[in-house]
Amino acid sequence: MSTATPAPAEAAHDTRAALRLITCGSVDDGKSTLIGRLLVDSKAVLQDHLAGVQRQGQTDLALLTDGLSAEREQGITIDVAYRYFSTEARKFIIGDAPGHEQYTRNMVTAASSADAAVVLVDATKLDWRNPALALLPQTRRHSLLVKLLRVPSVVFAVNKLDAVDDGATAFAHIAAALNAFAQQAGITVTAVVPVSALKGWNVVDAAEQDGWCGYHGPTLLEILEHLPVTGPETGLPLAFPVQWVEKFSSSSDTSQGRRVFWGRVAAGQVRPGQAVRVAPNGQTAVVAQVLDHVRQAGEVSAGHSAGIVLDRELDVSRGDWLLAVDTAGASLEASREISATVAWLDDETLVPGRVYWALHGHRWVKAKVKRIVHQLDIHTLAEHDAGELPPNAIGHVELALQEPLATRPFAESRSLGALVLVDTASHRTAGAVLVR
Q1: Cis omega (within 30 of 0) for bond into 228
Q2: Please, is 44 exposed, middle or buried when counting C-beta atoms within 10 Å of its C-beta (0-12, 13-18, 19+)?
Q3: Which residues contact 357 (CB under 8 A, 6 or more apart)?
Q4: Residue 326 has what pLDDT?
Q5: How many Cβ atoms sit within 10 Å of the Cβ of residue 242?
Q6: By the 8 A CB rule, do 418 and 434 touch?
């Protein structure tokens, strides 16, 4: 039921950095309890902290991540809670995403930067005796969003199998349904694991019964310890979003500009002598100096912070992009028209003609919804014509921008292909846009 783990040499290379992962799925599937179990059984929780999450004399593992008072009162997860823990093999940054449909926007925020997703499935909510059982809508929605957001590794954890009469049959039917859905949706599944977050079976330690539910593979933690992290986009041409502009207090050197443009390299590498074009104004210059995060001169690659000094003074501000220029003098073209997949997160329905703020890197532009091409049916995975998108829907839209943006398809670049739509009146996050 699970795929093979990487070879030891590959794993040693892949697991140097901390793994950013999220738990997602339908409401009350046990996501917070699962994370609590990971923290407790991996010895990442102090005794005094455990003493503070007691209910009626028993430890409530969910309280280790549900920190908001409203979450503790209602027994639900509302916002994403991040926890940090480590094992002898690697470090983890784990986010507990809410399962409620109305908080899908928070799940999308967490998934946008995740290396892996653990999608929990509650066996007790499904018709597990039926070989052709139907998955819950939120399980399907979260799995599709994880795929759209290019989360590299997806692990399905079938929870609460200790609470059903025939765990082996339940796991076999649920795993078959998950694999069939994943194949239809084009989701690459890393593993399907039976777990009991409440009792701790197959989470950190193996189940007490050998071959529980007919499963003989690794525990969830063992799988997570061998998952790769998302590598920086070093294979693409340079793309650098300017976040902050620093002006020298005084400088008599006229061979270069007197300002340092700071930010994080989104794609490629930046080095002295490199030709760049400023987007959106189109001016060109040559990189005179590159500083790393501690102001040491040298080359900086994608994923790292850098300060760039150009060979001459140009009008560059926060939100502008510095883009590589090739030997023919061409660079990534900017456009006012974008065709994109959108995960609609606002409580109000998306209709053509509405205008939103669009955030790309650190740049804000006005974006008008020209047309809704279609909506994705999360049950059948069919695309059908639509004149509007209701809350939590996924669809294909066309946007008209007030100013041109230099983008790449999201399938090529997470940083250049992602935008966020924000309501101009309420300033709420309205949609996650993925350039097609």
Answers
A1: no
A2: middle
A3: 364, 365, 366, 367, 421, 422, 423, 424
A4: 87
A5: 21
A6: yes
pLDDT reading at 388 higher than 60: yes
Residue 24: CB partners within 8 Å, gap ≥ 6?
A: 31, 97, 99, 107, 110, 111, 117, 118, 119, 120, 142, 146
**403 within 8 A of 365, measured Cβ to Cβ:** yes
User: For the chain, what is the radius of gyration of the CA atoms?
Assistant: 24
Q: Which of 21, 30, 150, 39 is nearest to 95 (CA)?
A: 21
SS3 57: coil
Closest residue by Cα to residue 418 from 401, 394, 435: 435
Q: What is the structure's pLDDT at 183?
A: 97
Long-range Cβ pairs for the range 39-47 (8 Å, 24+) = 39/64, 39/83, 39/85, 40/64, 41/200, 41/203, 41/204, 41/205, 42/85, 42/86, 42/87, 42/204, 42/221, 44/83, 44/85, 44/86
The single-letter code of the amino acid at 285 is A
CB 398 within 8 A of CB 371: yes
How confident is the prediction for the chain on average, in pLDDT? Answer: 87
Looking at residue 194, its pLDDT comes to 98
pLDDT at res. 25: 84
Quote the CA–CA distance of 30 and 204 in Å, as a whole number: 15
The whole-number pLDDT of residue 60 equals 53
In this predicted structure, what is the pLDDT of residue 103? Answer: 62
User: Cα torsion for 422, 424, 427, 431, to the nearest 10°?
Assistant: -20
State pTM to two decimals: 0.85
* Residue scoring higher pLDDT (296 or 209): 296
Q: What number of CA atoms fall less than 13 Å from residue 73's CA on the CB side?
A: 3
Name the residue among 99, 34, 20 with its Cα closest to residue 65: 34
Q: Is the pLDDT of residue 123 over 90?
A: yes
What letter would DSSP give residue 173? H
Query: pLDDT of 3-51, one tens digit each?
Result: 444 434 343 344 468 999 998 888 788 888 888 888 888 877 544 444 4
Q: How far apart are CA 204 and CA 371, in angstroms?
A: 48
Cα–Cα–Cα angle for 63, 46, 26, nearest 5°?
A: 25
217-237 per-position pLDDT tens digit = 999 999 999 999 988 999 999
Angstrom distance (rounded) from CA 113 to CA 101 = 20
